[in-house]
Amino acid sequence: MSDELYQARIVALAKSKTGAGKLAAPTKSARRDNPLCGDRVTIDVRLADGRIAEIAHQVRGCLLCQASAAALAATAVGRDAAGIAELRHDAERAVGREAGKAHAPFDAFEPVASHKSRHECVLLPFEALKDALS
Amino acid sequence: MSFDVGAVRRQFPILSEIIDGKPVHYLDNGASAQTPLAVLDAVRRYETTGRANVLRGVHRLAERATELYENARADVASFLGVQPMEIVFTGGCTAAINLVSHAYGQLLKRGDRILISELEHHSNIVPWQLLRQRSGVELDMLPVTTDGQIDLGALPRLLTSETKLISLAHVSNVTGALLDVRKVVEAAKSVGAKVMLDGAQRAPHGPLDLNALGVDFYVFAGHKAYGPNGIGVLWARPELLEAMPPFMGGGSMIGRVTLAETTWAPPPRRFEAGTPPIGPAIGLGAACNWMAALDWTATHDHEMGLVQRVLDGLQKIDGTQILGPASLQNRYPVVSFMLDGVHPHDVAQTLDSFGVAVRAGHHCAQPLMDRFDLDGTTRVSIAPYNDNSDIDALLTGVRHAANTLR
Q1: pLDDT tens sequence across A50-80
Q2: Does B346 contact A at CB distance below 8 Å?
Q3: Of A120, B99, B345, B403, which one is least surrounded by beta carbons within 10 A?
Q4: By the CB < 8 Å criterion, does A2 face chain B?
Q5: Are B288 and B232 contacting, i.e. CB atoms less than 8 angstroms apart?
Q6: What is the CATH number of the domain that holds B247?
Q7: Number of domains, chain A
């Protein structure tokens, strides 16, 4: 139900603003837009030996997109592209696009599963990070 | 006549639905309005007692279908104050603008100029950008004032002898601002330009007199005007329709086809290639008749009373800001607002949990969002069947979003 969507964990993730901002000297950056809703995510990463040493994001989008970017920033450091893909599976599981149980922090997005129009809000930061790592 | 909102509401079956335990507070009429029984009945009558193709059969069902289809054209024409043969049925408002951009666009040459504005819907921007790519016409943009109106003060600066067409929203789908058509038409005449109005947000609010407005093209969508999906209208002055070549080729739009060449049917059939959306056209005719039967002085007062209730209520919620005219002057019942610290999609999602349907986002007007450096707005769009309970549910939901999401 819609009134259960904005549960405390999602709101807390968004308000944490973990990783919000820019990096002073990013190795790579990428920006992704959702043309349907206009949400925009820009991700900066600093890489060391192919792994993320630092990450920052700028989100012009909804609370779900902000929360997802914060969750990603909280878990991305130390991972390479394959490690980020694992996190994405977690997010996909949370919104019901893949079978299985999502792990924290992405299990917070389980209430989004019944709102198909909002799945992309959760996944947009992953798309931007995938571009940054490609 | 006066306005009885309860009597109007009873004509819209969807308004008495309970969905997930909540009543329907439908305030997304600017995207798609609901349809009254009169429209549903007209479409059902055609589908169950007169379904056939038009113009090309001699059997009685075909004759009945053709008669219903042409009657619908006459009903739409009557609603717009014009002649039936000046009405072209299209697949929608976007299709109508694309028709003009192709057909009228063929009469333009490299270096001719088209004037639009920063607040246009993408459907009144992109077709002209595509025409620019095809034929080398130039595009000029009227700016938008801080209260979301097209800045007509810039007309003298932007109009030139090369300007051939001014194409503007009659009512903004974001800010609700009403265009000063007289001023635009006067300016256009001074340089010999034609005027097209995108009436998608104006047509659902009462009959028009297009000849009195003095414009040259008018387009609107059926589904926003209480009609079915998949139908739109282009009206153009007969001499323009006569001058324009076809946009699409196929059946019905021909005079005579040989393997060597084809001649065109006269308008409006020249622009209705293939089997038209017959049922939707009949439904739109019924919708125009339904609208024409309302007392629009009272109906407009009712709608604008609800706008005032929205404006007053939002003003009492900390951190709200209106994008558009602050008063009832120069506006129609479309209200966009921002809630500080809460994204419009989150406002809209919260409202959904109160049974309130609104639209949030860029509203297919990204240049306008860029103009105000906005991610989007939450948009309330009102129809005659809305009442105080809809607005009160809206305001309750916005207060809830303000209290829980920031």
Answers
A1: 999 999 999 999 999 999 999 999 999 999 9
A2: yes
A3: B403
A4: yes
A5: no
A6: 3.40.640.10
A7: 1
